[in-house]
What we know:
Beta-Lactamase, three-stranded antiparallel sheet, 10 helices
Amino acid sequence: MPQALSENRLGKSVFLHKDIPDGWWEDHVALSRGKFSPILFLARSSLASFTWTEVQRLFQPVGVDCWYHELALKYGMRDGLTCPVGGRWAVAFWSRRVLCNMLTQPCRIMIFAAANFAALRLEQLAGPDVCRISSRTRLTNRELAVLRLVSAGGQTRDIAQALGLGEETIRSHLKKAETKLGVRNRTHAACEALRQALIP
Protein backbone atom coordinates (compact mmCIF):
# COMPACT_ATOMS: atom_id res chain seq x y z
CA MET A 1 0.00 0.00 0.00
CA PRO A 2 1.49 3.39 -0.91
CA GLN A 3 1.59 6.73 0.92
CA ALA A 4 -1.36 7.99 2.98
CA LEU A 5 -4.34 5.71 3.46
CA SER A 6 -6.68 8.52 2.46
CA GLU A 7 -5.13 8.30 -1.03
CA ASN A 8 -5.57 4.53 -1.24
CA ARG A 9 -8.27 3.36 -3.60
CA LEU A 10 -9.29 -0.20 -4.33
CA GLY A 11 -8.26 -1.24 -7.79
CA LYS A 12 -5.88 1.71 -8.18
CA SER A 13 -3.41 1.78 -5.30
CA VAL A 14 -4.77 -1.08 -3.15
CA PHE A 15 -5.37 -4.63 -4.28
CA LEU A 16 -6.88 -7.17 -1.89
CA HIS A 17 -6.68 -10.92 -2.20
CA LYS A 18 -10.02 -12.73 -2.24
CA ASP A 19 -9.12 -14.39 1.09
CA ILE A 20 -9.23 -11.06 2.99
CA PRO A 21 -12.20 -11.25 5.40
CA ASP A 22 -15.28 -9.36 4.21
CA GLY A 23 -15.56 -5.93 5.81
CA TRP A 24 -11.93 -5.68 6.92
CA TRP A 25 -10.88 -3.08 4.32
CA GLU A 26 -13.88 -0.84 4.98
CA ASP A 27 -13.22 -0.92 8.73
CA HIS A 28 -9.50 -0.34 8.13
CA VAL A 29 -10.15 2.78 6.03
CA ALA A 30 -12.65 4.15 8.57
CA LEU A 31 -10.39 3.53 11.59
CA SER A 32 -7.09 4.60 10.02
CA ARG A 33 -7.97 8.20 9.13
CA GLY A 34 -5.49 10.49 10.87
CA LYS A 35 -3.96 7.66 12.90
CA PHE A 36 -0.40 6.38 13.05
CA SER A 37 0.14 2.96 11.48
CA PRO A 38 3.40 1.41 12.70
CA ILE A 39 3.17 -1.37 10.12
CA LEU A 40 3.03 1.05 7.19
CA PHE A 41 5.60 3.33 8.81
CA LEU A 42 8.12 0.48 8.95
CA ALA A 43 7.20 -0.62 5.43
CA ARG A 44 7.99 2.89 4.16
CA SER A 45 11.12 3.52 6.20
CA SER A 46 12.80 0.12 6.38
CA LEU A 47 14.24 -2.38 3.97
CA ALA A 48 13.35 -5.27 6.29
CA SER A 49 10.08 -7.13 6.61
CA PHE A 50 8.49 -7.34 10.04
CA THR A 51 5.70 -9.53 11.38
CA TRP A 52 2.83 -7.67 12.96
CA THR A 53 3.73 -9.23 16.31
CA GLU A 54 7.29 -7.86 15.99
CA VAL A 55 5.91 -4.41 15.16
CA GLN A 56 3.70 -4.61 18.25
CA ARG A 57 6.77 -5.38 20.38
CA LEU A 58 8.88 -2.62 18.75
CA PHE A 59 6.34 0.18 19.18
CA GLN A 60 4.46 -1.09 22.26
CA PRO A 61 1.32 0.89 21.37
CA VAL A 62 -1.27 1.70 24.01
CA GLY A 63 -4.86 2.88 23.90
CA VAL A 64 -6.03 4.33 20.60
CA ASP A 65 -2.74 3.37 18.91
CA CYS A 66 -3.70 -0.33 19.14
CA TRP A 67 -6.45 0.10 16.53
CA TYR A 68 -4.68 -1.82 13.75
CA HIS A 69 -3.91 -4.82 15.99
CA GLU A 70 -7.40 -4.96 17.48
CA LEU A 71 -8.98 -4.70 14.03
CA ALA A 72 -6.85 -7.55 12.71
CA LEU A 73 -7.85 -9.75 15.67
CA LYS A 74 -11.52 -8.89 15.12
CA TYR A 75 -11.26 -10.43 11.63
CA GLY A 76 -9.21 -13.47 12.71
CA MET A 77 -5.89 -12.09 11.52
CA ARG A 78 -3.59 -13.10 14.37
CA ASP A 79 -0.35 -12.07 12.66
CA GLY A 80 1.09 -11.11 9.32
CA LEU A 81 4.22 -10.12 7.49
CA THR A 82 4.53 -6.78 5.71
CA CYS A 83 7.17 -6.45 3.00
CA PRO A 84 8.19 -3.05 1.59
CA VAL A 85 8.67 -3.22 -2.17
CA GLY A 86 10.20 -0.60 -4.45
CA GLY A 87 9.31 2.43 -2.37
CA ARG A 88 5.75 2.30 -3.66
CA TRP A 89 4.13 -0.90 -2.45
CA ALA A 90 3.76 -2.71 0.84
CA VAL A 91 2.74 -6.33 0.29
CA ALA A 92 1.18 -7.87 3.38
CA PHE A 93 0.55 -11.54 4.09
CA TRP A 94 -1.72 -12.45 7.00
CA SER A 95 -2.07 -15.55 9.14
CA ARG A 96 -4.36 -16.98 11.82
CA ARG A 97 -1.21 -17.99 13.77
CA VAL A 98 1.70 -16.07 15.31
CA LEU A 99 4.46 -16.00 12.71
CA CYS A 100 7.51 -14.38 14.31
CA ASN A 101 8.90 -17.62 15.79
CA MET A 102 7.95 -19.73 12.76
CA LEU A 103 9.52 -17.62 10.02
CA THR A 104 13.21 -18.35 9.69
CA GLN A 105 15.44 -15.92 7.82
CA PRO A 106 15.55 -18.10 4.66
CA CYS A 107 11.75 -18.34 4.77
CA ARG A 108 11.43 -14.55 5.08
CA ILE A 109 13.74 -14.11 2.09
CA MET A 110 11.50 -16.38 0.00
CA ILE A 111 8.35 -14.52 1.09
CA PHE A 112 10.06 -11.20 0.37
CA ALA A 113 10.93 -12.45 -3.13
CA ALA A 114 7.28 -13.45 -3.64
CA ALA A 115 6.25 -9.94 -2.55
CA ASN A 116 8.55 -8.47 -5.20
CA PHE A 117 6.98 -10.65 -7.88
CA ALA A 118 3.53 -9.60 -6.65
CA ALA A 119 4.59 -5.96 -6.89
CA LEU A 120 5.60 -6.46 -10.54
CA ARG A 121 2.03 -7.56 -11.22
CA LEU A 122 0.67 -4.61 -9.19
CA GLU A 123 2.72 -2.24 -11.36
CA GLN A 124 1.11 -3.76 -14.45
CA LEU A 125 -2.38 -3.38 -13.00
CA ALA A 126 -1.95 0.15 -11.63
CA GLY A 127 0.50 1.63 -14.12
CA PRO A 128 3.12 4.22 -13.20
CA ASP A 129 2.20 6.44 -10.26
CA VAL A 130 2.68 9.81 -11.95
CA CYS A 131 0.88 11.70 -9.16
CA ARG A 132 3.25 10.31 -6.57
CA ILE A 133 6.32 11.26 -8.57
CA SER A 134 5.19 14.77 -9.45
CA SER A 135 3.74 15.62 -6.04
CA ARG A 136 6.81 14.51 -4.14
CA THR A 137 8.27 17.29 -2.03
CA ARG A 138 11.39 18.77 -3.59
CA LEU A 139 14.07 19.39 -0.99
CA THR A 140 17.61 20.46 -1.85
CA ASN A 141 20.51 18.12 -1.11
CA ARG A 142 21.58 20.43 1.73
CA GLU A 143 18.08 20.43 3.27
CA LEU A 144 18.02 16.64 3.06
CA ALA A 145 21.45 16.42 4.70
CA VAL A 146 20.31 18.68 7.55
CA LEU A 147 17.11 16.66 8.07
CA ARG A 148 19.08 13.41 8.01
CA LEU A 149 21.26 14.73 10.85
CA VAL A 150 18.20 16.05 12.74
CA SER A 151 16.61 12.59 12.49
CA ALA A 152 19.76 11.17 14.11
CA GLY A 153 19.37 13.58 17.05
CA GLY A 154 21.84 16.25 15.91
CA GLN A 155 21.59 19.74 17.40
CA THR A 156 22.09 22.88 15.30
CA ARG A 157 25.69 23.34 16.47
CA ASP A 158 26.61 19.70 15.76
CA ILE A 159 24.96 19.77 12.33
CA ALA A 160 26.75 23.01 11.41
CA GLN A 161 30.06 21.49 12.41
CA ALA A 162 29.41 18.23 10.55
CA LEU A 163 28.46 20.06 7.34
CA GLY A 164 31.02 22.84 7.65
CA LEU A 165 28.35 25.54 7.68
CA GLY A 166 27.27 28.29 10.04
CA GLU A 167 24.50 27.71 12.58
CA GLU A 168 22.35 30.43 10.99
CA THR A 169 22.65 28.66 7.62
CA ILE A 170 21.49 25.41 9.24
CA ARG A 171 18.49 27.20 10.78
CA SER A 172 17.70 28.66 7.35
CA HIS A 173 17.81 25.22 5.69
CA LEU A 174 15.54 23.85 8.42
CA LYS A 175 13.00 26.67 8.01
CA LYS A 176 12.89 26.15 4.24
CA ALA A 177 12.45 22.38 4.68
CA GLU A 178 9.69 22.93 7.26
CA THR A 179 7.85 25.24 4.87
CA LYS A 180 8.16 22.83 1.93
CA LEU A 181 6.96 19.91 4.05
CA GLY A 182 4.16 21.93 5.67
CA VAL A 183 5.20 21.07 9.23
CA ARG A 184 5.49 22.89 12.55
CA ASN A 185 9.05 22.28 13.73
CA ARG A 186 12.32 20.50 13.04
CA THR A 187 11.26 17.24 14.69
CA HIS A 188 8.05 17.19 12.69
CA ALA A 189 10.08 17.94 9.53
CA ALA A 190 12.43 15.00 10.15
CA CYS A 191 9.47 12.68 10.83
CA GLU A 192 7.67 13.82 7.69
CA ALA A 193 10.82 13.39 5.60
CA LEU A 194 11.14 9.83 6.96
CA ARG A 195 7.44 9.18 6.32
CA GLN A 196 7.80 10.30 2.71
CA ALA A 197 11.01 8.26 2.36
CA LEU A 198 12.95 11.41 1.45
CA ILE A 199 15.69 10.44 3.89
CA PRO A 200 16.81 6.95 5.00
